[in-house]
Amino acid sequence: MTSKLHFIGPWQRLTLTVWSMALLGLYFADIDVISLEPWNEFSRMLLGFITPDFFATESLFHALWLTVSFALLGVVCGLLIGIPLAFIYQSAVVAGICAMVRGIHEIFWALLFLQLFGLSPITGIVAIALPYGATFARVFHDILQQAPSQTGQNLPSNIDRVSGYVYGKLGHVYPLVFAYVRYRFECALRSSAVLGFVGMPTVGFYLETAFRQGNYHEGAALLILLILLVGSISFWAKRALMPIYLLLALFSLPPMGAIDGMLIWQFVSHDLLPPGIKAIVYGHVAFTDGLVQCFHWWQRLTIEQALPATAATLVLAITALGATHLLALTGYACASRHRCGNIGAGAGQLVLLLLRSTPEYLLAFIFMMLLGPSMLPAIAALALHNGALIAYLVSRQDASFIPSNTYKANSDHFAFEILPRIYPNLMSLLFYRFEVILRETAIFGVLGIATLGFYIDSAFAEIRYSNALYLLMITALLNVVVDVVARRLLARQLPQGVNLGQPSCIS
What we know:
Blueprint: H1 10-28, H2 38-50, H3 60-86, H4 92-102, H5 106-117, H6 121-146, H7 150-153, H8 161-194, H9 203-212, H10 216-231, H11 233-236, H12 242-252, H13 261-271, H14 275-281, H15 287-335, H16 337-357, H17 360-371, H18 375-398, H19 411-443, H20 452-461, H21 465-493
Helix pairs in contact: 1-15, 2-10, 3-6, 3-8, 3-12, 4-6, 4-21, 5-6, 6-8, 9-10, 9-17, 14-15, 15-16, 15-18, 15-19, 15-20, 16-18, 17-18, 18-19, 19-21, 20-21
């Protein structure tokens, strides 16, 4: 009797696929260290973190409160958008529109609305609300699909439809919905801080100014306060206090300013139109000549900017995915109480908290000051933040495991008994997180890396809004296509019955 030994299982195949793609991406990636004296700058930065100056920034607490206000109002507006859409998300049109909207990062939305509302609070709130609303629609729809259908059959026959839906369906998934909203609020705090890099009066504005001017004592203090703000969210963001925070946020926002309807109409009907189409609409050229102009504009923009920027974005994202996998494994191993004990795991959790509480954009900004404008700072930032987040999530699952009586806290027993139980969920989180990695990769162009964000930021700076709109659409489509292709490829590699997990916890 012969038997065929399967030396490579489904999770090993997925791991090899990730690392093969990452090594291929690393071959094409620009990872040169351009900075002349990185260690000198690093020593100055380290000294700043050792001796932070918490009194150097004027209006510090006001900036922190505005960070919370933009995050809270953005999440509330996102809920107002996402909850109704969740009930009709099964529509292909609705799902497609939501995928496009959430495929564009908050910074890009802010750059777009800056042209309409300037540095108004509307810009920051709407920039968070739109992608978050699209994300809420998808995740809430997925959560509702998990609700059992048997409960509704046991309700009284004369109950109205609204009450039946609330008690028979929503009652089961409410804890999941609330937990996800709380998680998105934590993400919104990071997004709100990052919006300061495009001029919004949040803590990110002062962070960028301090680090660019070399005031590392001040910058370190601001970063520490941001990490404490995000890390202590479970202590101050109590459910009973949220209505009070919401009212305070509404009354403490800066002045909105007047909304110029003519400016908005000019932007939509003139500035966003491609050159040839604009000439046709305003009767400057014949219809055929306008189409020819539009085609030449599209061809030049696609060949010179869209295609090379898309390739650079994919190379950076795929390379960062492999680095994220490595750091997620390392971080989890250092934060598992089954391997490191309670004290060691506590220290590991603290490091994970510091890394996951710092936005990727801010990490990339700091690394770029040390290493220069290459892909290396972006890869490091994406891997550290996302790897820490994945490691944190799987370490929570690790805490619920009860090992066997023969288990010993060493690497051999850990790799044999604990890691195989965790690894499927770790890989699921990694692949669902790839959509976020791709979105973050695109915006690193604002820092000077030649991804899609570099050309989008340049188009806004040069007042070429039609170019910016086209590149934004490319960014959104890239996120949608890569997400769909990745899911299908992964599903083919897994055996029947293996589930990649639920995206609701980490989208």
